[in-house]
Design brief:
This is EAL domain-containing protein. By secondary structure, the chain is an alpha/beta fold. It is 44% helix and 20% strand. The longest helix is centred in the middle third of the chain and has 21 residues, at 86-106. The protein binds ligand C2E and calcium ion (3 copies).
Length: 282
């Protein structure tokens, strides 16, 4: 019953976000939420187009608000970023995701886990050491960790960002460029930074079959990822048409979106994967 509530909240949250702007919480409230452990990670599956297998998950933070219920990141991430709270939030999300990864592996689910970074992590030279220590603590090899970075996050202090990302890469962390196509960076950053994965933004994926401009950007991005030796991920796969379009392309490696699954609470992932495997192998 509780799971149903959470899934309905995920559904509702997505619908609400399509509408107007929603309230932003105050910095003191967000700070208290972090201190009181009210943040939880949900996890959205990433599926290999070729094999149909679940290869990993992306951690997406939610706030289990004592009064308002499940609150989405667009209502508190910006506040956390503006008030120096994002570093603590990122560390909580990261440590939680690594512990969860260990538990899944113990139960035979060999999944990678992706965590979204903010700019603040990319200006702190001690961040790679923190990541390594957190993984060691959780008993997870760093090759199972994916860090997602958006193009605009690289802009602030590109040299420090490059330094930090290179150190993470040398530790065998997988680096992913997120929301590709929406940023303002020059493409040369893709050459300088050792990214392993490129995630095409949902805005170019959903309905690409019917919209030739989206399709052009989607296909060019997928091709470019391959030419640069990166894995390609399409986000925002919302319906059968999106899925069929991508599965006919040889250039898309991994898909993620509501058509596969909404983000799920950690507890329900094992059952979801078992069910998915049954459906995809017939
Ligand atoms: P993102 O990293 O681009 O994450 C993907 C967002 O798209 C998620 O929204 C996810 O629930 C949603 N989504 C998944 N499949 C579909 C689909 O088929 N269609 C559509 N329309 N949307 C889909 P969510 O969870 O609300 O997160 C929003 C953003 O908040 C994320 O965008 C990310 O930028 C940020 N965020 C989430 N968790 C964290 C975190 O732990 N740290 C930081 N710094 N940012 C986070
Ligand atoms: Ca992301
Ligand atoms: Ca994204
Ligand atoms: Ca986004």
């Amino acid at each position: 019953a509780q799971l149903r509530q959470i899934l309905e909240a995920e559904q509702q949250g997505a619908d609400d976000r399509a509408r107007a702007t929603r309230i932003q919480y105050g910095a003191d409230e967000v700070e208290a939420a972090i201190a009181n452990d009210e943040l939880v990670n949900h996890y959205q599956p990433k599926v290999s187009v070729r094999s149909g297998e679940v290869v990993g998950v992306e951690a997406l933070v939610r706030w289990q608000h004592p009064r308002d219920g499940l609150v989405y990141p667009d209502q508190f991430i910006a506040v956390a970023e503006q008030h120096g709270l994002i570093e603590g939030l990122t560390r909580q999300v990261l440590c939680g995701a690594l512990r969860q990864c260990r538990q899944w592996h113990d139960r035979g689910l060999r999944l990678s886990v992706a965590v979204n970074l903010s700019m603040s992590s990319l200006v702190r030279l001690d961040f790679p050491e923190f990541v390594a220590a957190a993984a060691k603590n959780a008993g997870v090899d760093l090759s199972w960790l994916v860090l997602e970075v958006t193009e605009s996050q690289l802009m602030h202090n590109p040299l420090t960002a490059l330094d930090i990302l290179t150190r993470l890469r040398l530790k065998n962390v997988t680096l992913s460029i997120d929301d590709f196509g929406t940023g303002h960076s020059s493409l040369s950053q893709l050459r300088d930074i050792p990214f392993n994965e490129l995630k095409v933004d949902a805005g170019f994926v959903h309905n690409a079959v019917r919209d030739s401009a989206r399709r052009a950007i989607l296909e060019a991005s997928l091709d470019m990822a391959h030419r640069l030796g990166m894995k390609s991920v399409a986000e925002g796969v919302e319906n059968l048409a999106d899925w069929q379009f991508l599965s006919r392309r040889h250039s898309c490696d991994i898909v993620q979106g509501y058509f596969i699954s909404r983000p799920l609470p950690a507890e329900s992932l094992n059952a979801w994967v078992a069910d998915w495997d049954k459906r995809s192998t017939g």
